[in-house]
Fold these 3 entries.
Entry 1:
Amino acid sequence: MKRKLMTLGLIAVMTISVLTGCGTPAGKESTQTTGNGEAGTADTDKKVGYTICWTVGDLSNPIWAEKVDQAKKTAEEYGCNFEAVSCDNDSSKQVAQIESFIERKVDAIMIGAADPNALDDVCKKAMDAGIVIMVEGIKLNNYTISMIADNYEAGKMIGEETAKFINENYDGVAEVGLITYYENNECTIRGQGMVDALTELCPGAKVVQECSTCVADEAMTYVENWLQANPDMKAIMSIGDGGGIGANQAVKAAGKDEGFGIFAVDGTVEALQLMADGDPIRAELSFGSGWQLGEQAFKVCYTALTEDDFDKDVYEEVCLVTYDNLKDKVEEWGYEDRIDLSNLK
């Protein structure tokens, strides 16, 4: 499956790349905050001081926390009002949150959907009210603009790394655990990509345990039980860093970290630090740093608010982070003061 690249149309409306600091979209005057706290701009044709709200599945998930934090900082630089809430992976709660945003007549709603199937009606209602719907990470049926990833391809890349690890260290034969998240269709697709690649490239590997969670504490409990039931397990694949970090804790607590491999998606600061410390996390599939994704998500939403002509779907790039390129990625993402590489071999 081929990934689409961010098209030139969208790049043209953003004068500064997601890899740099915040800037002003092309053709627009910079939105400033005046001395009395009110937003002001030289562009009288566009509304200023946009109110943008973001509802996400779970802010205890480290990658979501990183993204939301940076989106808030970027919104402040653009002179926008920004608010983020967690629905705790409860689709009915998320619908209620969106209903509240509609009643408040906000300008845009950013959504990290807990259950895409539950949001069709409320998103249509918001769009009928003139509210921009920006979808991040998970595609919906009704939306204005999206920033999404090729989740199957991302999963395949993790499955390939897991297969490589087992082939090189265990002659292609090992018991494997899978941490997926069935409540989310995109995460399910990501997990299927992992299994398909592992099956193709390492047929002697067998997934003997699997669970559905994106929370570290829950994953830790699952993996503790797995290691008792399957003491010969040598690898775990996780659709996110919540699961990967929890698995890492369980494997270390069981004293099985030597020769064990954990392969996860997200590339959060916490997971990368564990990798740098020589923990069982051996590879991370990242869509970019948390701050990159948060800044880009806000800018994509802002584009839909301020431009008449934009690309509806923006696809996130992916990169694999391993011991070999970890130092380079830490420098590229500006994490030198957040990740200690002194133990990196």
Entry 2:
Amino acid sequence: MQKALKKYFPIFALPTVLAFIVGFIAPFLMGIYLSFCKFRTVTNATFNGFENYSKAFANQDFLNALVFTVKFTVVSVVTINVLSFLLALLLTKGIKGTNVFRTVFFMPNLIGGIVLGYIWQLIINGVLLKFVGQDIYYNANYGFWGLIVLMNWQQIGYMMIIYVAGIQNVPGELIEAAKIDGASPWQILKSVTIPMVMSSVTICIFLTLTNSFKLFDQNLALTAGLPARKTAMLALDIYNTFYGRIGWEGVGQAKAVVFFIIVAVISLTQLVATRSKEVEN
């Protein structure tokens, strides 16, 4: 059986490998090359060295978007993971209606980003800011916290499900042993539960980190970068550069490469840091 699998494995794997090369590897490598070129289309690219990268880092909108994205990511990662973990703890206590609550909290994750953005724009402008005669475009802080609330509302339920699965897999005998030894609920949480669910923590932090950095749809629908592009995140700034400025396609591509490197480095660092703290069951 094993010999047959090894013999026919290349045949069955070939379509997937080809699709991966055509759909990901080739465009990725072409994108890196185009970041060093000036072009309008991929057929008229002319090599110009690091000019696109120098323009990208000299562009104040890109630097503002980078700072805004980092601030947004830090706040959203902390709030989403803390709140979803607390909800998971609450919903693993056997309270009545647990399954209903889990379903309700998870449902916002099923709504598309564009729709979510417009929903929260209506809520913020039509309810929260209506009484002060302002809207979300009036102040960049409104846009920042609006995006934080939107991201939390969408992601908390999804992360909660992952944390629930991790908490339910904590061996009951460990909890009982800690109680017998006189450990308080806080000590049990800190010394037993959290170390045992570090694999879930790794997954959730990775997902919230990458999702926050790559946020585009919600940013476009909720604030569109207003006022004066002060609430534009990296993905939206790259989009505006590539499609909104004639002759800056190469600069937009250079920004995209820098964006990829930043997300890859931070994500891999986080994975190494949190996986080193995981405990084998």
Entry 3:
Amino acid sequence: MMTYSRCWLTALFSVAAALAVGCSSLKTPATADVAVSKAAVANAVGAGGVEYAPAEMTSARDKLELANKAMAAKDYKLARDLAAQAQADAKLAQGKANSAKAQAAADALQEDIRVLRAELERNL
């Protein structure tokens, strides 16, 4: 009987410890999350996100600003959530920008091929 109670007691302490660790992590500053999101926004700007995905860039910047305000208000859970959303929006903007650039390069290449074919046909 003593071993059975000891198992339950150990399980109870384990659950309590897990909850304590989980709750304490919500109280620590989300500085790293916000910094990663800031870098993602900067990368998206560098990739041309402002030109090719303005809506996503505006959303990313707005959410990053709100995350910074949440950090200042010490609402770290909200700051983490907003930082993650800002990072997702920035990555989407960067992806759209990269895709648009690749499409433009492919279109230019297709035009070059068309011109070369026209020259070949004219010379034959």
